[in-house]
Amino acid sequence: MSSAASVLSIKDLKVVFSGFKALKGVDLEVGNNEIVTIIGPNGAGKSTLLDAIVGKSPVASGHVYYQGQDITNKSSYDIARMGIGRKFQNPNVYNELSVFDNILLALKGTHGVFASIAAKLTAAKKDKIIDVLDRIGLLEQGYSKVSSLSHGQKQWVEIGMVLAQDPAVVLLDEPTAGMTADETHATGEIIKTISANHSLVVIEHDMEFVKQIAQRIVVLHQGEKLTEGSVSEVQSNPKVIEVYLGREQINAA
Ligand SMILES: Nc1ncnc2c1ncn2[C@@H]1O[C@H](COP(=O)(O)OP(=O)(O)OP(=O)(O)O)[C@@H](O)[C@H]1O
Predict the structure, then answer these.
(1) Going by CA atoms, what residue is nearest to atom 12 of ligand 1?
(2) By alpha-carbon position, which residue is closest to atom 1 of ligand 1?
(3) Contact, 11 vs 26, CB < 8 A?
(4) Residue 187 and which of 45, 140, 198, 202 are 20 to 30 A apart at CA?
């Protein structure tokens, strides 16, 4: 059974790759408009967890419920259509098209590059695209080619493409990878804005950024949930310091 208050409810999830247990029974609840941040050492199973939610990694046992419906092992296509949007680490944008056209192509119910751009744009679609551009902070760059944007701005276009699909849940895998400090901070503000209308699960390594956005942090380690809690709870947890934060501090020094 899923929890009534959760938009996403994960129960005892196990993922096994050729005998290797990447997830060993993970539970996770994500509430409406909540930002859940996942941290943990390399290989902890963070990406695998998001992959399992969107039907990209096969679930060996356990369940994923979305809005009370069991979506375990449904196809990625069906899960995306139902309302779970996923942004991957690498930008997957059309560089030679404008920011506006990239968002247009991602709009729900839009099919094919030529058909979408050639079709007459309804006022409703235009408003929707402008709203997305506003939320990702790229209104002024709407008619710029994506190729002219910075790395960080390209990442925001991709977030915009996810938003254009109207997902209830947005999953982001290291959204600030490769970004400057200013871009990282701006990404945090974008995520907070987005959370007014969506629930988010964000994998992140940058602890400053985690502190900026985090409401609840889940710590994964070797395929298991080590703990979860607020920033201060997690930061003062000796087990987390031992397996992750201590190491991060040494890396940052
Ligand atoms: N398709 C796969 N086939 C086999 N093993 C895999 C596969 N995907 C992930 N793994 C293994 O599962 C474990 C968890 O990987 P995962 O990418 O989920 O970790 P992560 O916490 O996201 O790490 P990172 O911070 O390095 O991205 C790793 O040991 C990885 O090598």
Answers:
(1) 22
(2) 17
(3) no
(4) 45
Q: Residue 1 pLDDT > 50, yes or no?
A: no
CATH architecture of 1-83+169-253: 3-Layer(aba) Sandwich (3.40)
Which DSSP state fits 148? G
Contacting residues for 110 by C-beta, under 8 A, at least 6 apart: 104, 116
17: CA distance to ligand 1 center in Å? Answer: 9
Coil, strand or helix: which one is 141? coil
Provide mean pLDDT across the span 77-88.
Answer: 90
d(CA 212, CA 180): 15
H/E stretch holding 11 reads strand 6-17
Residue nearest (by alpha carbon) to ligand 1 atom 3: 17
Say if ligand 1 is within 6 A of residue 46 CB.
yes
User: Does the pLDDT at position 251 exceed 60?
Assistant: no
Tokens of 215: 């409401």
For 225, the enclosing helix (H) or strand (E) is strand 224-229
ipTM of this complex: 0.96
